[in-house]
Amino acid sequence: MNTLLSSLIALTVASVTVFSAHAQDVQGNAKAAESKIAMCIGCHGIKGYQASFPEVYRVPMISGQSDKYIASALNAYKKGDRKHPTMRGIAASLTDQDIADISAYYAQHGKVEGAAPVTARASDNKVGELLKKGACVSCHGENFSKPIDPSYPKIAGQHKDFLFVALKSYKAENMSTWGRSNGVMGGIAKQFTNAELKTLSAYVGSLDSELKTVPQSKFR
To answer: pTM for this one?
Structure first.
């Protein structure tokens, strides 16, 4: 890993630590979230549901994701660090308590006690070199399912088309409705062609996963 990337990761971890300390002041209540997730169910509670902006892709699986990551993502949409009209509109309507409750809900949603741990699958030489170049395991952890900080996402088994669009979004610049501002991920993603990002996404998306989509009805 080069010196610049190491410095960026260290700076980001420090920033996340400050954010996490603040976020811990608000305790999430998964039960309370049951009356707050109607806006989430319409996309994330339907298996195979596809978004159409800025291109067609399956919306991410969020059940089983870390509560700290979900909170971090929602706050990034709320602040505009992640640009997506629908998600920003939803996040902007949420209080800190709402975000904590929703995050707690999806972190435990669909979990099965005693489930076998996620295991990795060997990559071929081409994918291995790309993973090494991006130093992906340095943040996303063992089997890409144990991030070094809980505000980073589990990515193993996530939909490959979503991963591809998400990675490309870190390369987007000067766009009002699309893109993600993140120094570390921006620096990493810009090292790769879109074809290489697609290869990475396909590999990571093929792995065993703790993530899932749990079908839910909007009519309760």
So the answer is: 0.87
